[in-house]
Every structure is written in C-alpha cells, then in structure tokens.
Write a structure and sequence with these properties.
By secondary structure, this protein is an alpha/beta fold. It is about 35% helix and about 15% strand.
Length: about 350
C-alpha cells in the first residue's frame, strides 16, 4: 500500500503519490490498489533485503500469496495507524491459516481482543519471536486483500474493551463532558492547536477533561480541564467511553475513539493527511466522527469558533433532554402517588 512510508521515498514520483492520495480521499479503492500494484512492481529489485533502512519506510509485502499461510503482520507506523488498520484483520484471517500481529506494546491488550487476530506479540527492535510463512506491514494489508468500501466503512465498533465498574465521574443531567487533545508527537506539528484556543470551549454546562499526554498535559489547568490522561490505552478508552464527546487533533486518540464507536470531533489542519476526505464533515473510516477543517494554514481561530458553536448547540440539546426526562419522571411519580392514595 502506498501511504506515509512510500510518500517519503525518493524512489517514486510525487505525481504518482498524489494520484494515490486522490483515489483514497475519493473512496476509489480499486484505482488506489491499481496504483499500488504499479508502484510495487517497479519498486523492488530481485533479491533486495526488504528489512533494511528505517522501519517506517520499509515495504514488507512483495505480492506474496497470503491464502492458506501463516501471516505475520508488522506494525511499523504510529499507534493510530495500527488502530485504524486493525479493522482489516477479519478479512485477512478469512483467507490466511493464521494471523499474528507484532504490535506496539502499549496496544497489546487492545489488539489481543480484536477480531481476526489469533495472537498479538510485543514489537521490539530485534526479530519477531514467532514462526511465519509470509510477513506484511499492517498498512499494506488493504492493498493485499483488495479492500473495498465494505471492509472500510464499518457501521459498528471494531475494537472492544474489558468491562469496568470504575467511574471517574458521575453523570449529571444536562452536563456535557468533553475530552480534549491538542498536542501531537514529532511527526507533522501542523496538527497542533495552541492550548489557549480551547479555553473558549468551557462553559456553565460543559465540563472539560484533558486526555493529553506528554509535555502539554501540564497545561490542562490553564483551560479549566481536569486531567484524566493515562499511558494505559485500555484504561484511556474506558475513560473516554464515560465522556459525552471527544474533541481532538489528528492523533491516536481520534482513531481510538472512532474504533470504539465514540462520538469524536477531529480538528484537521489545512493540508491534512491522505486518510481524510478533501471536503465534508464525515469520514468513511469512522461513522461517529465529525471533521472540522482549517481553511487557512496556521489559523485555528475560525475552527475553534465553529467547534464552540456546535458544542453550544449540543449542550443546549442535552439540557433540554435532561429537563424533559426530569419532567416525565416527576409526572410519573406524581401519578403513582395519586393512584396509591386512591387505593
């Protein structure tokens, strides 16, 4: 699959890469895989070592047959990439004899529960501690299985969490609990939002919670957000599930929320990544996501204003719904009391 790894390669023209990006953004997957076929055929020299160089630039799958074979899936990109592309494991498992996923250690518990995964083992810098017939990088899987819209546009959550009875907050009628992420890792800092911009999202009926990790986590109190972040991704998912909404930049949390079927608003910079469509508020990848787009590079103010207005509308709807529930509950109690007095 052509993607972030190949986009950085000097062995292919920028034009070919843009063709693939355009096809993916348009949902024209057959065209994208045809471009990937062409790219794969011209990229490899016979006998070349596919495991040389930085891992995130390695092209692992060379067109080998996967049917009836034991497949090792290598996860050489980001945590969000692994979460996004683990959706293809059931389709891979349907043709393979077995599927082992060599994934980032923080994701191990989550990936072990995923459909289509026979075994998940922790990624490290050495060689994989498992036997296999053929290997493939996880972002190459959709190309290898010729993924179509049915594989991508899943209408239900494709990851699950262990049940928990531990709650970090009590639900209060009319209050909207919002989780926030504003900073990203070293790759593409254009995705970040100045934390001060998010202070505008707080309000009388809106409770802000920080899901931010890293240096930015210390800024949570400056915007009135309670820090509920954690390095434990399963615990993070459980805490996110107790929120009403997640608002975040394009990072792992966006993919985790989408994979779990949680409401998430994703804030995208002007030249956003290939996985997001060129226009519109919706994504084929995550039906519960809403996209908010930067129109001018570096200018987040209009984006936050749009989010602020949408959040205000959502909060008002929550207050109205809570008032209706309270009125209905009070009416039911009153009716029950009257009936009791008549007996």
């Amino acid at each position: 699959m052509i993607g972030p790894a190949v986009a950085a390669s000097t062995d292919r023209s920028a034009g070919a890469g843009q063709d693939w990006i355009d096809a993916m953004r348009a949902g024209e997957f057959d065209r994208a895989w045809a471009i990937s076929d062409r790219d794969l055929a011209r990229l490899w020299a016979p006998g070349g070592d596919k495991h040389l160089g930085p891992r995130h630039l390695q092209r692992i799958w060379r067109g080998e047959e996967l049917r009836g074979r034991s497949v090792l899936v290598r996860c050489y990109h980001g945590l969000g990439d692994t979460i996004q592309f683990i959706r293809f494991m059931p389709a891979l498992r349907a043709i393979a004899r077995g599927v082992t996923v060599w994934c980032q250690p923080p994701l191990l518990a989550l990936i072990s529960r995923a459909d289509g995964v026979d075994r998940a083992i922790p990624l490290h810098n050495g060689v994989p501690d498992v036997e296999f017939d053929v290997d493939i990088e996880i972002m190459e899987v959709p190309h290898a299985i010729r993924a179509n819209r049915d594989h991508i546009a899943l209408q239900r959550p494709y990851l699950s969490l262990s049940p928990t009875t531990v709650r970090f907050r009590e639900r209060i009628g009319g209050q909207t609990a919002v989780g926030l992420v504003w900073e990203v890792g070293a790759w593409d800092k254009r995705r970040e939002i100045p934390v001060a911009e998010l202070q505008r999202l707080g309000g009388a009926n809106i409770d802000l919670y920080s899901l931010q990790r890293g240096p930015g986590a210390a800024m949570a109190p400056t915007i009135g957000a309670r820090d509920i972040s954690t390095v434990d991704i399963c615990l993070l998912g459980q805490r996110m599930a107790q929120l009403d909404l997640v608002i975040c930049v394009d990072t792992m949390v966006a993919h985790l929320a989408g994979a779990l079927g949680l409401d998430v608003w994703i804030l995208l910079h002007a030249d956003c990544d290939w996985r997001w469509p060129a226009s519109g508020e919706r994504s084929i990848w995550y039906p519960t996501a809403r996209l908010f787009r930067q129109r001018k590079p570096g200018d987040w103010s209009p984006v936050i204003e749009q989010v602020e207005n949408a959040l205000s509308h959502r909060s008002e709807s929550a207050i109205t719904a809570a008032s209706v529930d309270l009125a209905v509950g009070g009416s039911a109690a009153s009716t029950s009391s009257i009936a009791g007095n008549r007996r």
